[in-house]
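ARCHIVE CARD
CATEGORY: sequence design from structure
SOURCE FIELD: tokenized fold
FIELD CONTENT:
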């Protein structure tokens, strides 16, 4: 699903960027351009970021 229409960024692209190390809104903005045009995508992007970071922590804790 498209999250940022201005830059054509999908939820999958955001998740891939997070998995590759972009773990903040600032990093996602630099890498993908989200939130740099009209700003309507920032709330959805933050939700995806938070959910993905929680998933990463949960997996890390299960492995440890």
């Amino acid at each position: 699903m498209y999250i940022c229409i201005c830059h054509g960024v999908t939820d999958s692209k955001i998740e891939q960027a997070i998995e590759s190390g972009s773990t903040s809104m600032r990093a996602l903005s630099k890498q993908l351009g989200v939130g740099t045009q009209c700003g309507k995508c920032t709330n959805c992007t933050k939700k995806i970021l938070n959910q993905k970071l929680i998933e990463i922590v949960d997996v890390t804790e299960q492995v440890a």
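CARD ANNOTATION: The mean pLDDT is 96. The CA atoms of residues 16 and 63 lie 21 Å apart.
SHELF: design records, drawer C
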